[in-house]
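[Backbone geometry]
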Amino acid sequence: MTKSMSAALRLREKLPFPLQRLADLAYNYWWSWTSDRIALFQTIDPQEWERCGHNPVAILESATYERLTQLAEDPFYLKQISALGREFDEYMMQSNTWVSRVAPQVSAAHPIAYFCAEFGIHESLPVYSGGLGILAGDHLKSASDLGVPMVGIGLLYRQGYFRQRLNRSGWQEDYYVDNPFHRMPLELIKNEQGEALTIELEIRQRQVKVQIWQVQVGRVTLYLLDSDRHDNDPIDRWLTGHLYGGNQETRIAQEVVLGIGGVRALKALNIQPSVYHLNEGHAAFCTLEIARQKIEQTGKSFYDIEADVRKQCVFTTHTPVPAGHDVFSPDLIDSFFAHYWAQLRLSRQQFLALGARRLGDPWEPFGMTVLALRMCRTSNGVSELHGRVSRQMWTVLYPNRSEDNVPIGYITNGVHAPTWTAPLMADLYNQYLGADWKTRAVDPQMWEKVEDIPNAELWWRHQILKERLVAHTRHKVKIAREGRGEEYERIQAINTLLDPKALTIGFARRFSPYKRGHLLLRDLDRALRIFGNSDRPVQIVFSGKAHPADEEGKRIIQRLMEWCRHPAIVNRVAFIEDYDIYTATKLVQGVDVWLNNPRRPLEASGTSGQKVCFNGGINCSVLDGWWCEGYQADANGKGINGWAIGEDAHTSDQELQDRIDSESLYQLLEEEIVPLYYNQDEKGIPHGWVQMMKASIKTNAPLFNTDRMIADYVSQVYVPEISVAVPPILAKVSV
């Protein structure tokens, strides 16, 4: 009996017998990517479902017995549970998986250990901040679907990432909320004595106990480390308090917990990984702990076992932005590792050299990406362009190699199709692509069948999803305006905010200056002409957070909030506060156009635009990240499956690039996007637009999904000695 089952069993005892399978489903996030996910738990109490943040355990525990017994005599609901329970059992017990067929040597006895500082599994598990976490969550889900033996290693944050509210001046205010761990779909792992299983770490000359929680993600288990224990120093209890919060000392302490603590947790759980996958540099200290344990076991020197450590470790880097790579001063390394390098049989200078870009400089900081590049057998970026940029960034570590031969390859990111495809669209795919479309996401021939979908049918479903986005936006904006104490008239005006029939653009991401959330406002008069046009209305929904320390990012949000109040476009522009997975889902499923305009080449990959494609949305993006590979144009340079902003060129002159890109964006809207959308027949169907929707789906869906991505990792990184035949592999990792 697994630990997760014991939690489910306790919950089962509280439920009427016919509903007890709900407890099994609640403790495994597999339910969150099924076709029945909307009604399964929401039906119990829609208002409470909203209040509890779509937490299945909380809704079952808070429901009255009277309500549960009502559901227990509803034959339709019971049939739904029974069918879903059978589907769940078949999924969990399936032995004939993709990996068992193509790579049977990947053994459950020695799984891949996937380390990441954040995991975006579902909004009810708020241990994520953005793209890195969402990618990590999708990685685990596809590993589960394909049967790849894998465990996730992360941190369980008491208060997660900061919550966002905007005051009456539009300025972002940050606040935090405790996560109710004991009412969430996770369980504390205990030893045979019934006590929390713990590992110990020395941090800042103190012994810190770290406990381990587990979350079931289909067939994959995610282990989350937590220092919030009564027997720890009050300061150490907050080591896992906030995601990306605190100062440099907090950051390095968290990375010690993730890397060194993660390896020790695996040992305490009797898990012996075949591969350690470091998803970003935050976990790079794990390579040192693997080395320390080998030295302890064998008595060999660090340099004798270094090659063995490297054979087991692989690394994915996710950002071309220098600030995204953690570095720590030698003094800070001293305070955290003075006790540790002796255990590696290294001197201080030898230890610091592992993380130094340039050897011999006593002031050279210790870089986590540098450590990962040195200690891993393969390293890859997350798009073709990002791989190229990463090789340029890190040539200093390989002085005897040309830039093209720097050993950093690429595997382009994807998204988990069942999670991000709206059930309404999934139902359409069931009809025209086949009921097994989710398991054939990498098959381009299957996606060609999108052409068989009647234009009216695709458009009708898309319009319903857009209406749902409008309703969600109005609801969230109303709550925000009420919270700010705005005037009664402003609150009532919510009823006319956005038009479900109007061309709708979505822009949602972290509000870092390089992502240029305000590029549309560069020429305010021109923007007002586009968004204030009463004959061919255009509207946009913004969402996203600026890092608490990013003053410029906060000013961008404030400027957008001012724009939301402009009388000419007051009903055409909306900002949804406190961006999370749920809002992201509504946006990527409901927009007509997904806008992405970072300064190239600073977008490593991006995945939001990929999610849009599965729902018939169309991308309008700078040729950066994944869009360099996804965008297709005809012989005249006209976009077939979306639009490209600006020129496919790099320049260090930011003002020039902003001017070129904003002019290009305005021109695209005025001359191509708006006319194409409003060229509608007597029934309101824009056939040219729908054809581009179909092109967006069929060209991007088979490539930019995590099934393809996982297949690439298996064949090129995890077990490169095998030859895996899958439909068009998008990327090759250079080793």
Observations:
- The chain has three domains: 7-93, 104-411, 419-648+655-679+692-704.
- The chain has a mean pLDDT of 94.
- Residues 7-93 form one domain.
